[in-house]
Amino acid sequence: MRNFISIHKTGFRLLKMIHSEDSTIIPLHLLELCFSVAQIYTGLFLTSALIDALLEGGYEQAAWMAAALLGTNLVFGISGHLIRRRFKGLRTKIWLLFYVWLREKAFSLDYETMEKAEVAEKILFSERTSDMYGGLGVVLYHYCNILKAMLNVLLSAGLVLYLCQAGPADSTGILGTLSGPVPSVLLFMVVLGGMAYGSWKVFRRFAVKQTEIFQEHTGVENRISYLNNHVLGDPKVGKMIRLYGMEEMILKNFRVFQKKSRDYFGKMCRVGREEGDANKVVNSFFTIASYLLVVMKAVTGAITVGAFTRYAGALNQFGGACFSFISANGELRKICTYMRDFLDFLDMDSLHAKGTIPVEKRSDGEYEIAFEHVSFHYPGSEKPVLRDVNCRIRIKGKMAVVGRNGAGKSTFIKLLCRLYEPTEGRITLNGVDIRKYDEEEYRSLFGVVFQDFSLFSLPVWENVAAGFAYREDKLREALRQADAEEMVRKMEKGAETWLYKDLEDGVEISGGEAQKLALARALYKDAPVVVLDEPTAALDPKAEAEIYARFNQMVEGRTSIYISHRMSSCRFCDDIIVFDAGRIVERGSHEELIAADGHYVDLWNAQAKYYCKSPKT
Prior knowledge:
Layout (H helix, E strand, L loop, with lengths): L1 H20 L3 H31 L3 H50 L2 H4 L2 H17 L2 H30 L7 H6 L2 H52 L5 H6 L3 H53 L5 H43 L20 E9 L9 E9 L2 E7 L5 H8 L7 E6 L2 E2 L5 H5 L2 E4 L10 H6 L6 H10 L3 H5 L21 H14 L4 E5 L7 H14 L4 E5 L11 E6 L2 E6 L1 H7 L2 H13 L6
Helix pairs in contact: 1-6, 1-11, 2-3, 2-6, 2-11, 5-8, 5-11, 6-8, 6-11, 8-10, 8-11, 10-11, 15-17
């Protein structure tokens, strides 16, 4: 019973969500359902009346009954057809709602929450199971079937109970006694109770089986999805596969997972067949017993031949409705099982509270960001990445953040941009904890190019303008500053050219070209702070020298923060922060740090020997 209640609790919530999005969808389905049921029972009554009229020789009355039967079928048929035509667009809308809600929720969560593997898995699992088994539209479809079945059961059961009230012409003998109103009602209730009990036992037995099989299958589908989307479906991976002879290894894994998936579907089909057969057996006993009751009534003269056809039709509807009710509940059980993960995701809260204070708009661009005893470790790990970091950053000037791999440089920037929040300590902007600021407003201060930046299969101008209003002159200036103007101009459609071939027949660009576009995107944002994480890592030495030569012009009037392994970038900076083992160990200008002869000199000398003979050169 708990499982049954849980299934429909999930289902009703989904229906409520659908109705809140479009209040016409459910009423239209209910209207079509009413027309369908009305057509069935109007047909039963008119057909039985037509038969009785013909048997009694009332041909004029029979003609009117035939005309009424044709007319009602025509009216109900046309009305249902018009409503179903309206369904086409609504069903597409319902199908898309699932993906819209999923993505809206994903964008509303903070970065730290979304970076968790289990959160990403919930999204992929929800999308994949929706594609495999049907989404919101299927939930609505099965609920309409359930409601139609319930309405059918009530009407047909009412007719049969009415039949039971008909007394026999001859009440003598066993048949005459059993055909009496009270015995007939008792017999029907016993048969009905037996069918309900049998159906419930079948439901309980197979609900447990299907849930167990469904849960076992999740891991297999995850692996198949990964291979399809990230290996077999990614043309960029093809180079690696061919160079290292990985074809057989990948196909072997794919075949193993496919076999497990086939075994799963085999189990599901077998359990589905067994459940269907069990329900048919239960339904057959009910049908046989019910028809015996109707035959008994007809034999004892309690009902006419026309009434026999009406009640036989009602019993047929009753049996079919019961089977439809059980079948639709079984499908809902399967759908709502995976939809719970979708709803759990929608109910998920961000790890961090959202601030509301607007960021002060300063015409002079004077801001100060302070790290106050900031320590941080990633979720699920106790190893600190940053340890008691204290520093102040004034907005204006050029800063470099340097250190060995794993020293904490990139994490420092992620905290600065509020992608993560400190485990200990706090970060302030002009003396106010940044957690109190509105996230979007605070992040508007930063234009960032991360080392693992992403460009999308969209036109060049959309990749650069991103979420900001498009201005052609501003786009050209950003491309020029990033040394990408000539590259884009040579493309067949200029800034309208699509990148990559995922969605359109776009152009493939090199890593260096992609990095220039990512840099142009950061400059287009026109934020007061530009953060560049390894800004020249994918560029050749000549392009790197050209970029550095223009850095002063690029970041004029802004603060620039460079994270780099190439120490040559430090010569362009007024302020250098040196990280080691998660701590700030040194800070100063290039000349001051060289004179201090500490960690910075070690890093400088490690690279300077490839370019010059002296660290002071």
